[in-house]
Amino acid sequence: MAKIELQKLVKEYGKTRAVHGIDLTIEDGEFVVFVGPSGCGKSTTLRMIAGLEDISGGNLLIGGDVVNQREPKQRNIAMVFQNYAIYPHMTVGQNIGFGLYTSKLSKAEKRKRIEETGKILGLEKLLDRRPAALSGGQRQRVAIGRAMVRDPAAFLFDEPLSNLDAQLRAQMRLEIKNLHRRLGTTIVYVTHDQVEAMTMADKIVVMRDGNILQVGTPTDLYENPVDVFTARFIGSPSMNMAEGTIAGGALSIEGAGTSGLNLPTHDGKVLVGVRPHDLVVGEFGGAGLSASGTVEAVEPLGSETLVHLTLGKAQVIATAPGRVVPQIGSTVSVHAGTGSLYLFDAVSEKALGRA
Amino acid sequence: MTVTSTELKANSRDIRPGRIIAWTLLLIGGLIMITPLLFMFSTSLKTSGQVYDLRLIPAAPTFDNYIKVLGDGRFMQWFLNSTIIAVTVTISNVFFDSLVGYTLAKFEFRGRYFIFLAILSTLMIPTEMLVIPWYLMSSQLGWLNSYWGIMFPGMMTAFGTFLMKQFFEGVPNDFLEAARVDGLNEFTIWWKIAMPMVVPAISALAIFTFLGNWTAFFWPLIVTTSKELYTLPVGISSFSAEASIQWELIMTGAAIGTIPTLLVFLLLQRYIVRGVMLAGLKG
């Protein structure tokens, strides 16, 4: 169990700075997910925590101790890799037991731990098999087992589910979450998949270009994104964005009408965001945003239908109840109620508030 | 019996011209390769009077030559010498070539590329050019007429280093980093994780090195003067340098000499299979 602190942490490769002095505190037992697009520095940060990358500046503290100069093995952390990295020449039991290679436990004690770990992960009948004879999900479990068996202070996961198919990924998400609940060990998890971040994290860290943009609970990030990037990155499908202008206490958007909005004190150009699930197909008489546009494509999902529309210059996605599937090329009305519009400064792209 | 159209198609695919030419060429190649070996074995079963009777199957096959050669203490000594030298040099090559190849493939350090080029460039120098310096060195260091004298030039090779480096480059870093996080030191990572993943390359290197040293003739001939230290090829050739050429004994010695090479090949070739390494990665 350990608290992990990043203090002005910097990573430089020659003259290129990959991580720009980030600050973050990961509480003991917390499940923290780093999320962001490729090249945002999330994996580099994780590797610095693991000790696989040198730290160019700042401090890394695990359990209150500065560990910048410590070797990976001295940090008492375990890591699960994207490619699982389970050793093909060893059996499942040997792979899991390999986490204990340097431990001073007796053989019997090691065996006991391996069996217990295998049991927790549902691998008890596969301990004598080689990785080649396992499915993707089982291999992933072996990798987790190798990390678990050491009873480390923290687990680091580097995009562990990205090689699994959608169904297995959903299952493993749940398993990892349950495991965290059971073990209570600190987990730092890196992914580019915002669904993984939303479903698993206690706390999400959104990164971009080597900087932390926002830290918060999944609901926080969904409800109160600090900027356009986070707003669009969190939530699926992405938040719709359109240009608008606030003047004289009124918001105008090309191709849409607004009424009864409680606008922030700001004059000038803004970006108006609305989540696809808040932009609903149908006539509506109340306050908020209403518009009509041409249907470009429809994606029936069963419980609802995603409708791709052109509203003025903007391409947006709206939602229609499951049974309603508008014709492509037809014109439909959409609306979003008050409180569902997110306003951002057009230049800085920082959040101004909701309306 | 009726022939279905599928069977006809399958048959016509089997006997298309390209395939016939390929099989014919392979057959001819195979015959060319095996004929000297058959003659070697055949001659080993002949008496000295029958050696120039070029029939493949001897008129009166005899194992006398084998009894004579195996009963000759010198032959067994040469066989032992060759075994000691080939096995030692093979182990040394597998160890050192792998270690250097791994270091060059997996560690970032200043001058890495230059060192690799320097090692590779030694491949361009023919053995004949090196023999005199080797001899002078052996002579001054007192290595003439010793196992070490025979072995030292081949204890590590540029070819082996190059081969192992190329294979180690294919080992994903995740495996090594996982071991690093698990607390292994670098030497143990190389030995326990990286080496088992390049078993096909190790097998290939071991076969090449063993065969090369088992059949080595030129350098062992130069560096040894005592018959006690002759290797098998040098020893066998000494049969021809004696009063008259005893082809039947030479061929018998050669036939016995092929057994270890066959054994090594049969033992190791099954490890030369690809794809072992990727089994631990994403499925």
Q: What features would you highlight for this structure?
A:
heterodimer; A: 355 residues; alpha+beta; Rossmann fold; OB fold (Dihydrolipoamide Acetyltransferase, E2P); 2 domains; six-stranded mixed sheet; 23% helix; elongated; B: 283 residues; mainly alpha; MetI-like fold; 70% helix; globular; disordered C terminus
Description of the molecule:
The complex is a heterodimer of chains A (355) and B (283). Chain A is of the alpha+beta class and 355 residues long. Chain A contains eight helices and 21 strands. In chain A, 23% of the residues lie in helices and 37% in strands. Chain A folds into two domains: 222 residues, Rossmann fold; 118 residues, Nucleic acid-binding proteins (OB fold (Dihydrolipoamide Acetyltransferase, E2P)). Chain A is elongated, with a radius of gyration of 24 Å. In chain A, the strands form four sheets. Chain A has a six-stranded mixed sheet, sandwiched between helices. The C terminus of chain B is likely disordered. Chain B has two domains: 40 residues; 216 residues, Orthogonal Bundle (MetI-like fold). Chain B is built from 14 helices and no strands. In chain B, helix 2 packs across helix 14 and helix 4 crosses helix 8. Chain B is mainly α.
Compute the number of helices of chain B.
Answer: 14
Number of strands of chain B: 0
User: Low-confidence segments of chain B, ≥5 residues, pLDDT <50?
Assistant: 274-283
Mean pLDDT of chain A: 91
CATH class label of the largest domain in chain A: Alpha Beta
> Would you count the extended β strands of chain A for me?
21
Integer tally of domains of chain B: 2
Name of the CATH superfamily of the largest domain in chain B: MetI-like
Instruction: Indicate the CATH topology of the largest domain in chain A.
Output: Rossmann fold
Organism (chain B): Devosia soli
Transmembrane segments (chain B): 20-41, 78-102, 114-135, 147-168, 249-268
GO biological process, one term (chain B): transmembrane transport
Family (chain B): Belongs to the binding-protein-dependent transport system permease family.
